[in-house]
Amino acid sequence: MELVSIRIITGDVARLVGFYERVTGARATWANEDFAELRTARATLAIGSTRTVPLFAPGSARPADNRSVIIEFLVDDVDAVYRNLTGFVTDFVNEPTTMPWGNKALLFRDPDGNLVNFFTPVTPAAIEKFAR
């Protein structure tokens, strides 16, 4: 088994895709107006419209209702990313903070309220864990 992607359901695909393109620097690949993907070297973030939900099961997903998942991106320099996003991101949950497990993390919310974590490993054990 292989985890292929995480999908966010939203009421405004273009807005959310634009946000993630800006914060990640990745360009989205659009299948149609209801579905786009942002691919990175390690994973894919898929963004789908609420119009796609009934294709799976009506009512099974609600946009802007996440309070349990954090979408995480490994970055080279979280402090530089923070400086770059200041003035664009409107809801920072925390500034870059070194976590007990060795990553320096920046937590913020996307326009739908989903938590996003950009992090840089800073301890030898964390650096080794994420060595490419």
Sheet with the most strands, sense and barrel status: 4 strands, mixed
Uncertain runs are none
Radius of gyration: 15 Å
Class derived from helix and strand content: alpha/beta
Distance between the termini: 21 Å
Q: What is the CATH domain class of the largest domain? A: Alpha Beta
- The SSE order reads EHEEEHEHEEEH
Query: How many beta-strand elements?
Result: 8
CATH topology of the largest domain: 2,3-Dihydroxybiphenyl 1,2-Dioxygenase, domain 1
Portion of residues in helices? 10-25%
CATH superfamily of the largest domain: 2,3-Dihydroxybiphenyl 1,2-Dioxygenase, domain 1
Counted up, domains total: 2
Placed side by side, the strands forming the largest sheet appear as 1-4-3-2
The CATH architecture name of the largest domain reads Roll
Mean pLDDT equals: 96
Strand content: 35-45%
Shape: globular
H/I helix tally: 4
